[in-house]
Amino acid sequence: MVLSEEVSCPNCGEPNLIWRKECVDSQKGKILDEFPCGKCRKVISKTECLKIWETRPDPCLPGSIWRIFRQRPVLIYYDVKGRTYCKIPDKIDIELFESFWNFKYPHIPISAIPKGDKTKELINGNTKYFHQCYHPYTLYGLNELLGILRKYEDTPEIREVRFTVSPIISSLTRMAVLHVSNFFNGGEVTSYLTSQGFCTSQAFLS
């Protein structure tokens, strides 16, 4: 699934998805520096726009609030009989995406992000726990995976499994970035901040 940040127009305040036809140059494979607002049509730049913050109940910490910048699903990839397809999310997809905020994730560890040079940006952005590096729809899959792994805690193969799974968990964080050029022209389409991604995988698998 590809998520797009949604920002507010500095002129009229209208929310604008960054991933839409008027913002993406598919020929050059990049997000445009300037694009027209979807409502007032004034040409704006992303640097002028403001992040839209949402306040949600933290599904892993009852009674706690999770402040997160707004992201919307814009593309969904799925496999059918070995073939990969892509679709634009419909109403049912979006409702399912939102429903993950209401689930419980008993196997997700609650671990505070330690203060340090590599984590300062995360903490200042209101990401205070490792599980908050992931969107709840990702936490759903990780919760199922961790539940399975814990059944084999005492087996000799568990260390090898943890080693194999660790980079996968890192690549699923909210810090993962879409390589727009590779998306249109081929190649690895995602990357992530290595130091922060490594920390999140260790916190989940240690």
3D structure, described in words:
This protein has helices at residues 91-99, 120-124, 136-149, 158-170, 180-185, 194-205; strands at residues 2-8, 15-17, 24-25, 30-31, 34-36, 43-45, 50-51, 53-57, 65-69, 71-80, 83-87, 177-178, 190-191. With 206 residues, it is α+β, with helices and mostly antiparallel strands. Helix 4 (158-170) runs antiparallel to helix 6. Mean pLDDT is 83; it is low at 193-199.
Topology:
Blueprint: E1 2-8, E2 15-17, E3 24-25, E4 30-31, E5 34-36, E6 43-45, E7 50-51, E8 53-57, E9 65-69, E10 71-80, E11 83-87, H1 91-99, H2 120-124, H3 136-149, H4 158-170, E12 177-178, H5 180-185, E13 190-191, H6 194-205
Antiparallel strand pairs: 1-2, 1-7, 1-10, 3-4, 5-6, 8-9, 10-11, 12-13
Helix pairs in contact: 4-6
How many strands, what sense, and barrel or not for the largest sheet?
A: 5 strands, antiparallel
Note the run of SSEs as H and E: EEEEEEEEEEEHHHHEHEH
Query: What is the β-strand count?
Result: 13
Helix/strand/pairing class, anyone?
A: alpha+beta
Q: Measured on Cα atoms, how large is the radius of gyration?
A: 19 Å
What are the main properties of this structure?
206 residues, alpha+beta, two-stranded antiparallel ribbon, 6 helices, 13 strands, globular
Produce a short descriptive summary.
With 206 residues, this protein is an alpha+beta fold.
